[in-house]
Amino acid sequence: MKAIYLSKGKLEYRSDLPVPVPGEGEALIRVLKAGVCRTDLEMAAGYMDFTGVPGHEFVGVVEKSATPGLVGARVVGDINCGCGICAFCKNGEQNHCPDRTVLGIKGRDGAFAEYLTLPDGNLHHLPDNLGDAEAVFMEPLSAAYRIVEQVVVRGMGALVLGDGNLGLLAAQTLEIMKANVTICGRHRRRLDVLDGTRVNAVLEDELIPGKQYDLVVDATGRPEGAATALSRTKPRGTLVLKTTTALKRELDLNTVVINEISVVGSRCGPFVHGMALLELGQIRLSAMVEAEFPIEEGPTAFEAAGKPGAMKVVISF
Ligand SMILES: [Zn+2]
Ligand SMILES: [Zn+2]
């Protein structure tokens, strides 16, 4: 099958990979579209030391499954696959299973391929009114929703740092959950996605100097983002960290102690909530797609996604 393959930091298009064989309880899914995200770019730069097919944002059609009603369904899928027997898995927290695999990130080939496999239980039927291009955002949107699972944001003055896809989705999610949201980024064309919403979208030099917020989300994707976010967090406020990078980072823990800051690490969220958010029809997605490339041009798609200010790049099959 056709796929993009990552090995020792080198990304290449290949047409010689075997179609994966689903394990017990797993489905074989034909991928329709897959989104390139910053995590993929970081992985190509060495984060996670991954060898195989990357990609974890996808929409596809089930071709094989033992579960009745699943074959032929258009689906998205939770990317974390737990062992099913540890305490985390039994508690529905397979995100934190120590033996988990993660689609296209850890121990499991991902979505930049014609076919992938996932456990049946990870799959979610897509409603007909959601298009393929919108469904590609389900994973990052669920990750954005994760913030409001962890922090009660209603009425808070919130600052989202970073105008990448996750930042734009987090700002919209916080706003829907009744926070007063400012997003700060480096690219006017990305911030313009939020025109006409209640989110206050500003460039870095337009942010009021020294102003601090109850809740600050670092979605910059940059190593220095966490420190900047901490400097913008009010005493007794909450700092949510979304960025993962290939580089190690430092955070001034004295400030955390002195200002009694709650620091919240935040990763993946439940797809059911991402889906509910999409069905509200209030999240602006179509303006967020930059370009679509066929799988054969996968490495070019990665280049396009890595350009400063680029929106979501989608790979199609
Ligand atoms: Zn992603
Ligand atoms: Zn487990």
Describe this structure in words.
This protein has helices spanning 38-44, 87-90, 132-135, 138-150, 165-176, 188-191, 225-231, 253-258, 271-280, 298-306, and strands spanning 3-7, 10-14, 26-36, 57-64, 74-77, 80-81, 101-103, 107-108, 115-119, 123-125, 157-161, 180-185, 200-203, 213-218, 233-241, 262-265, 289-294, 312-316. It folds into two domains: 3-137 and 285-316, Quinone Oxidoreductase, Chain A, domain 1 (Alpha-Beta Complex), CATH 3.90.180; 144-265, Rossmann fold (3-Layer(aba) Sandwich), CATH 3.40.50. Helix content is 24%, strand content 29%. The strands form four sheets. Strands 3, 4, 5, 9, 10, 17 and 18 form a seven-stranded mixed β-sheet that branches. A six-stranded parallel β-sheet has the order 13-12-11-14-15-16, with helices on both faces. With 317 residues, it is an alpha/beta fold. The protein contains ten helices and 18 strands. The radius of gyration is 19 Å and the shape is globular. Helix 4 crosses helix 5 and helix 4 (138-150) crosses helix 9. Bound molecules: zinc ion (2 copies).
Helix/strand layout:
Blueprint: E1 3-7, E2 10-14, E3 26-36, H1 38-44, E4 57-64, E5 74-77, E6 80-81, H2 87-90, E7 101-103, E8 107-108, E9 115-119, E10 123-125, H3 132-135, H4 138-150, E11 157-161, H5 165-176, E12 180-185, H6 188-191, E13 200-203, E14 213-218, H7 225-231, E15 233-241, H8 253-258, E16 262-265, H9 271-280, E17 289-294, H10 298-306, E18 312-316
Parallel strand pairs: 7-8, 11-12, 11-14, 12-13, 14-15, 15-16, 17-18
Antiparallel strand pairs: 1-2, 3-4, 3-9, 3-18, 4-5, 5-10, 6-7
The chain binds zinc ion (ZN) (2 copies).
One zinc ion is lined by residues 37, 39, 56-57, 139-140.
